[in-house]
Amino acid sequence: MTGGNQAISTNAAVFRHADREISRHGSDWLFTVCALMGLATLIFWSLSLTKSSSSSHHKRLFHHLVAGATFVSCIAYFTMGSNLGQVPIVAEWPRGGRSPVAQGVFSREIFYVRYIDWFVTMPLLLTGLFLTARPRLPLSTILSTVLANWVMVVCFLVGSLIQTRYKWGYFTFATAALLFVLWQMVWDARRHAAVLGGPVYRTYLTASALLVVPWLLYPVAWGLSEGGNVIHPDSEAIFYGILDLVSKIVFGAVLLYGHRKVGPAVNPFMATDHVDKEQSKATQSTGQLMTEHHAENGQAAGGDVANISSSQESAQGSSEIRVSPSAAAAAAAIPGAHTQLQQPQAKQQPA
């Protein structure tokens, strides 16, 4: 067969493949999601460039967070569409495949690259959502939620690579961590966003719903695919792909649209850079005033110095001893008196 998507046949000899893996249709779908993620990345990044420097860094921060998430997902879906970034794992429950089951051994394709994608992108999405509720939301809440999210991803990854029923223990740990993350979004962070009210609260509610609903379905998708081997890898690709499109592209678009109406007057977090610039302007103005003040004082001091110099010259002139002729004649009769009378005059000559 020539033409079309040849990724599966081209990469067939690159890695060891499973009995149950994606077909060409599944690869086409994964490449479609890859293209959508790439297009969303370009749009989000282009929108960040339309922000003037006076809009401050906080506006571009949200664009960069969602653009970074979609870009990483674009790479991950390109890898999965190429049928790479996967490993065959013996399924706990064999459910059909390309080849007959040999001695009870039956493998299913597990895309570990998906969990690398989640490990990087989910914290970016959480950060973008939680910064909407800043500064009311404590930093400790953000850090603890991101940590729990990492625990969830790692446990899902480890569970998918285990061949025995002990994988469900890791599934339980991952689900518990996910519930903690969802609790922080639905309860704790939402309360802090409600205090800010107005467009901040509305933006948070809409954006958080676009994370909570898809993320609640991730354990379902895992149980039907990597966990229970119930659905075909093509169906798995469609299931996960729809969830990722909603939780990244749609979420990012709603978050950025909502922040168009959120400014420094609404959310104090947005005022950080604005305040810094105002303080910088105030500092410059204060510096100019102080410079002008010092210059005026310098001119006044210069005038005072001139007056003092004139006064000193006048004092020196008035301090000269005037000797009348009669006094000089009388002093001549006294030995040494002439020398004493001449000394003050000698001192005044240099002046």
Automatic annotation (TrEMBL):
Pfam families: Bac_rhodopsin (PF01036). It comes from Apodospora peruviana. Residues 309-320, 340-351 have a biased composition (Low complexity). This is FDD123 protein. Residues 300-351 are annotated as: Disordered. The chain crosses the membrane at residues 29-49, 61-80, 115-133, 140-162, 168-187, 199-217, 237-257. It is a multi-pass membrane protein. It is found in: Membrane. Keywords: Chromophore, Membrane, Photoreceptor protein, Receptor, Retinal protein, Sensory transduction, Transmembrane, Transmembrane helix. It comes from the Eukaryota.
